[in-house]
Amino acid sequence: QVQLQESGPGLVKPSGTLSLTCAVSGGSISSSNWWSWVRQPPGKGLAWIGEIYHSGSTNYNPSLKSRVTISVDKSKNQFSLILSSVTAADTAVYYCARGGSAASFDFWGQGTLVTVSS
Amino acid sequence: EIVLTQSPGTLSLSPGERATLSCRASQSVSSSYLAWYQQKPGQAPRLLIYGASSRATGIPDRFSGSGSGTDFTLTISRLEPEDFAVYYCQQYGSPPMYTFGQGTKLEIK
């Protein structure tokens, strides 16, 4: 059973940089899957941020593309998210997820709340 | 960008009843790339249906998905107490981009 676990600071200052890591266990990040970040502002819906393949290929949500970088570390079986120039609007629960059949997300991390505040 | 609109926003039903949730797309969606999720408070979403009609591993057969083009439906044949949650549809399109509907809250009547 694949498991994903997000980690990183829960509080980031406005104009700062949000940095999260997703550790993958029970499976290899070098499998034939894409790996994504999805976020959910408090009380709101889900929004896709971007994805990465183990080769390093990435796709990003155009609305965030200028501020997002996703990277992979195959030696540690993990991938990471960097979001720059954050504002209060970036406050959300951030999930990492595995791309599954037919472009669905079949395994999810438990999520981590990141608050942007001074 | 394809926008997914879910209806109703809130659905109030009793255990044992049938639930029908709708997801309408602003443009045609490949049926291969339409999924449904269930989310309970404080939990991550759980994949229910992928490819518009295929149940994910371990999902009970009271959950079924159907539809094509711009109109998709999630049906729960007989509601169990644990089915009361928020449900999201999700699509994948070109350029590589995933979008979610705004969700339908299924609450106990």
Pick out its properties:
heterodimer; A: 118 residues; mainly beta; 7-stranded mixed beta sheet; 4-stranded antiparallel beta sheet; 50% strand; globular; B: 109 residues; 58% strand
Summarize this structure briefly:
The mean pLDDT of chain A is 97. In chain A, the strands form two sheets. In chain A, strands 2, 4, 5, 6, 9, 10 and 11 form a seven-stranded mixed sheet that branches. Chain A has a four-stranded antiparallel sheet with strand order 1-3-8-7, with no helix packed on it. Chain A is mainly β and 118 residues long.
Report on the architecture of this protein.
- Chain A contains no helices and 11 strands.
- Chain A has strands at residues 3-7, 11-12, 18-25, 35-40, 47-52, 58-60, 68-73, 78-83, 92-99, 105-108, 112-116.
- In chain A, strands 2, 4, 5, 6, 9, 10 and 11 form a 7-stranded mixed sheet that branches. Chain A has a 4-stranded antiparallel sheet with strand order 1-3-8-7, with no helix packed on it.
- Chain A is globular and about 40 Å long.
- The model of chain A has no long low-confidence stretch (mean pLDDT 97).
- Chain B is an all-beta fold.
- Chain B contains no helices and 10 strands.
- In chain B, the strands form 2 sheets. In chain B, strands 2, 4, 5, 6, 8, 9 and 10 form a 7-stranded mixed sheet that branches.
- In chain B, a hairpin with a 3-residue loop joins strand 8 and strand 9.
- Chain B is globular and about 40 Å long.
- In chain B, 35% of the residues are buried.
Task: Explain the layout of strands and helices.
The complex is a heterodimer of chains A (118) and B (109).
Chain A: E1 3-7, E2 11-12, E3 18-25, E4 35-40, E5 47-52, E6 58-60, E7 68-73, E8 78-83, E9 92-99, E10 105-108, E11 112-116
Parallel strand pairs in A: 2-11
Antiparallel strand pairs in A: 1-3, 3-8, 4-5, 4-9, 5-6, 7-8, 9-10, 9-11
Chain B: E1 4-7, E2 10-13, E3 19-29, E4 34-39, E5 46-50, E6 54-55, E7 63-76, E8 86-93, E9 97-100, E10 104-108
Parallel strand pairs in B: 2-10
Antiparallel strand pairs in B: 1-3, 3-7, 4-5, 4-8, 5-6, 8-9, 8-10
